[in-house]
Amino acid sequence: MAEVLVFVDHVDGAVRKPTLELLTLARRIGDPVAVSLGNGAADTASALAEHGAVKVLTADAPEFGEYLVAPKVDALQAAYEAVSPAAVLLPSSAEGKEIGARLAVRIGSGIITDAVDLEAGDEGPVATQSVFAASFTTKSRVSKGTPVITVKPNSAPVEPAAAAGTVEALAVTVADSSKGTKVVSRTPRESTGRPDLTEAAIVVSGGRGVNGAENFPVIEALADSLGAAVGASRAAVDAGWYPHTNQVGQTGKSVSPQLYIAAGISGAIQHRAGMQTSKTIVAINKDEEAPIFDLVDYGVVGDLFNVVPALTDEVKTRKG
Amino acid sequence: MSLRIVVCVKYVPDATGDRHFAEDLTVDRDDVDGLLSELDEYAVEQALQIKEAADDAEITVLTVGPEDANDALRKALSMGADKGVHVEDDDLHGTDAVGTSLVLAKAIEKTGYDLVVCGMASTDGTMGVLPAMLAERLGVPQVTQLSEVSVEDGVVKGRRDGDTATEQLEASLPAVVSVTDQSGEARYPSFKGIMAAKKKPVESLELDDLDIDADEVGLEGAWTKVEDATERPARTAGTIVKDEGEGAKQLAEFLAGQKFI
Ligand SMILES: Cc1cc2nc3c(=O)[nH]c(=O)nc-3n(C[C@H](O)[C@H](O)[C@H](O)COP(=O)(O)OP(=O)(O)OC[C@H]3O[C@@H](n4cnc5c(N)ncnc54)[C@H](O)[C@@H]3O)c2cc1C
Ligand SMILES: Nc1ncnc2c1ncn2[C@@H]1O[C@H](COP(=O)(O)O)[C@@H](O)[C@H]1O
Fold it and tell me: Pairing state of beta strands B142-152 and B155-161?
């Protein structure tokens, strides 16, 4: 069977969940060959093997951390040339898209970004995308070169599928021209202990209605009772009430959880763009005319400062 | 010597309008009002601030798009950019990201540049790949997704807020930069700016001027193919209750019914 390159997103050897989802999709097209770069690359092998990687190509060089994006493109290109894959899959993070974009230009291939599903097809893999703020669903394929496709988190289940996962060192020469952008410093984001926004099964988001940073603990308490991640609208972020990393929407994170709860959010098109594909949508808003109510499975017209704390108590009681 | 800044701006269908696809499955740009992509206003704003901090700089705004894309250039010129370049050619209809990057790169080279500034993504395609592709094609550093940017002594510096870390980046010019909507509100064009924009020069270029063959671009030449586009069915109307003291209980009941609690 043809091989499919899967670019691994990991933090010091800990594979992030979207990469495991990529392996599920890759197996529909061929045999997944993982490409794992940077500090801890070799430590990713066992997790990748358990989820279907037949081979794990690893390379670690200081350049991967010292310069932005381009050295990883050199490495992925080396893997591409070594394997001649049927497709190259990457996670739809900012970095994943940029690596994919540059690789596509280098190897003369088309690129599809933000796929939410992937199927084998007669003329190569067919990618499903959700466009125009999720108001349309499209099916596309790459018509020139080797398909390069980036996939959004939560687009496929993580499925264990034991494979060899043979580790091979990938020989990479980082070109001088790839050392143009120096990473002068890197400050890792502090963990909040809550699930990652894009990976969470439940997301609870607050908007302008939360009315101040000092009130966000109301949202956090509900999130914690449900084991959920916390999101925010851009209005709440711009006001400085919550960090931008938690913003949901067109210019923030795009989420697709099992359950999305919006409190004090009106539901502007740019916010909907980032949450409309959630399975179940719930809103709490004191304005019954708020557009968010057009999307909901269940809506409560009311003051979030009454409803949310009471709901938190209900959840705690029922969970015991 | 003057710092030559090229800002790439895209003309897009209004996101608050009823966006849809044309029969050939390209984005319909006729039936919906278009405008300068809001995310590219941030690019124009940062270019203006870089120019204001420099001794001597000139800003060219560049767009690849249909006739109406001229509106996007005029808006950017009214904000304060100095001149425009409009690549317009019937053969460009249906061009995808890889093709657009080819056209933009050739137009940037023809214009001459020290710094290219892009938005983080276009509001219609939302790919966020063009800046990286431009860096690849031009063979210069990419300093992208910046929430803060400055240029001093031929060096561009910026802050990139990633998923797992915040990075401080640095590169020598020439370089390609993209800025996010966290980089600072874009200014509104003043009346004076709007009047002045009418007199600013806009150069029109066709594919021939850029030595690009028609079969390298357009729908036929595209590297990707949209095979099907269907409107997402409207979500079925949900249950909406008014909170009269029982709202939280009712909602909890619903969540329990769905097995979330
Ligand atoms: C290019 C661009 C990109 C953008 N990207 C994003 C993005 O990524 N994410 C995003 O979210 N937005 C984005 N926006 C902004 C978007 O257009 C809206 O401005 C924003 O989503 C509004 O946030 P909000 O719903 O919290 O605020 P508002 O629209 O002000 O709504 C607040 C809601 O809270 C309700 N409320 C107030 N008090 C209470 C209370 N006590 N109890 C219950 N309800 C209450 C009100 O009835 C109202 O419906 C973008 C805009 C542009 C132009
Ligand atoms: N047709 C175009 N003309 C000019 N600039 C463009 C065009 N398409 C994309 N860009 C630039 O590239 C950025 C990213 O676009 P994209 O990769 O399409 O999401 C935009 O914010 C613009 O700065």
Answer: antiparallel
- The verdict on B213 touching A (C-beta cutoff 8 Å) is no
Percent of chain A at pLDDT > 70 equals 100
Question: Please, are residues A193 and A229 in contact by the beta-carbon 8 Å criterion?
Answer: no
Among A79, A81, A42, which residue's Cα sits nearest to residue A60? A42
To the nearest whole angstrom, how far is the Cα of A9 from the nearest Cα of chain B? 11
pTM: 0.95
Ligand nearest to the CA of B128: 2
Q: How far apart are CA B171 and CA B138, in angstroms?
A: 15
Q: Which helix (H) or strand (E) holds B220?
A: helix B218-221
pLDDT, tens digit, for every residue of B240-257? 999 999 999 999 999 999
pLDDT by residue (tens digit) across A175-218? 999 999 999 999 998 888 999 999 899 999 999 999 999 999 99
- Do A3-178 and A202-319 share a fold? yes
pLDDT in tens, B87-98: 999 999 999 999
Could you tell me the end-to-end alpha-carbon distance of chain B, in angstroms, rounded to an integer? 66
The answer for residues whose C-beta is within 8 angstroms of residue B234's C-beta and 6 or more apart is: none
Q: Cα–Cα distance between A311 and B43 in angstroms, integer?
A: 43
Architecture of domain A202-319: 3-Layer(aba) Sandwich (3.40)
**B133 vs A301: CB contact, 8 Å cut-off?**
no
| B192 has a chain A CB within 8 A of its CB | no
The structural domains of chain A, with segments of one domain joined by +, span 3-178, 202-319
Q: Specify the fold of A3-178.
A: Rossmann fold (3.40.50)
d(CA B259, CA B261) in angstroms, rounded, equals 5
B32 pLDDT band, cuts 50/70/90, is: confident
Nearest atom of ligand 1 to the alpha carbon of A235: 23
